[in-house]
Amino acid sequence: MKAAAFDYVKPKALHEALSLLEEAGEDARLIAGGQTLLATLNMRLSEPSVLIDITDIAELKGISVVGNNLRIGALVTHTEIEDSELVAKNAPLLKAAAPHIAHRAIRNLGTWGGSLAYGDPAAEWPACSLTLGATMIIHGPSGERRVSAKDFFIDLYTTSLEPDEILVATEIPLASKQEVFYFHELARRHGDYAVAGLAAVAQKQGDVLTNCAFTFFSVGATPVMATAAQDLVDGKKLNDELIAQAVAAARNEIEAIADITNSAEAKQHLIGVLLERGLKHMAA
């Protein structure tokens, strides 16, 4: 099957793209890496009247440190994040997560902003952005607005991004010297979508973790933060008993959802497996 007919435009500036979006309304689609959109076009799951190619817009590119934040442009590719020294130093969780994303060919083209805007609950970047307390920088007809990651992901493939808005960049607080992290996902094969995954960070002093953030992905309709486990661990001396309590708390709090190949019970079990591994890793 081939895509239905559509118009194609390639603006050079952000304001041009916003004008085109406003003019076309909900019949328009943005394209950057196109790793998801092209497939949906060819299967006619998406039939836009106009495709707006944003890959030439400079305002959406680049990785930089701005004040106390790491700024990642929406057009930055997965490979650029994987290879960036700024990311490795200031957001090492992202460096650890990047190799898990699909395969090299997809990482070379797929974009940070595209993954966030799509809101796939099995994707790595939404979970990482929630764990790291990221802020989404969004431009629309009314100007700029900022949305925290915890408010950005609303439901399955649904974010707070409006049809006439563009995700421009994301700002992430710089990692401190005391920050420890853990990222792992369980998949049938490397490059497959995760059956379940965990992105976690904390501040470590001795064998005590504080400011804990544990986010599971591919277990619900959105990335899910294990707040009960975080509160249980925060500020306490880590030992086997506390880890077991945290695992039980996470399993009790998070209600996993089955997918086409894995049961809810299996995912519920893996939540505990991943958290136990993550806590032992960060405590080591």
Give the helix/strand layout.
Blueprint: E1 7-9, H1 14-24, E2 28-31, H2 37-42, E3 50-53, E4 63-66, E5 69-73, H3 78-83, H4 85-90, H5 92-97, H6 104-109, H7 112-118, H8 124-131, E6 135-140, E7 143-148, H9 149-152, E8 153-155, E9 158-159, E10 166-173, E11 179-186, E12 196-205, E13 208-217, E14 224-225, H10 227-233, H11 240-253, H12 264-283
Parallel strand pairs: 1-3, 2-3
Antiparallel strand pairs: 4-5, 5-10, 6-7, 6-10, 8-9, 11-12, 12-13, 13-14
Helix pairs in contact: 10-11, 11-12
Description of the structure:
It is a single chain. With 284 residues, this protein is α+β, with helices and mostly antiparallel strands. The chain is 36% helix and 26% strand. The chain has helices spanning 14-24, 37-42, 78-83, 85-90, 92-97, 104-109, 112-118, 124-131, 149-152, 227-233, 240-253, 264-283; strands at 7-9, 28-31, 50-53, 63-66, 69-73, 135-140, 143-148, 153-155, 158-159, 166-173, 179-186, 196-205, 208-217, 224-225. The strands form four sheets. A five-stranded antiparallel beta sheet has the order 4-5-10-6-7. A four-stranded antiparallel beta sheet has the order 11-12-13-14, with helices on both faces. The protein has a three-stranded parallel beta sheet with strand order 1-3-2, covered by helices on one side. Strand 6 (135-140) and strand 7 (143-148) form a beta hairpin. Helix 10 packs antiparallel against helix 11 and helix 11 runs antiparallel to helix 12 (264-283).
Strand content: 25-35%
Order of helices and strands: EHEHEEEHHHHHHEEHEEEEEEEHHH
Structural class: alpha+beta
Extended strand count: 14
In DSSP terms (H or I, runs of 4 or more residues), the helix count works out at 12
Q: What is the overall pLDDT average?
A: 95
Low-confidence stretches: none
| Envelope shape | globular
| Rg from Cα | 19 Å
State the helicity in percent bands. Answer: 25-40%
- Largest sheet: number of strands, sense, barrel closure: 5 strands, antiparallel
Record the strand order, biggest sheet.
4-5-10-6-7
Spatial separation of the terminal alpha carbons: 52 Å
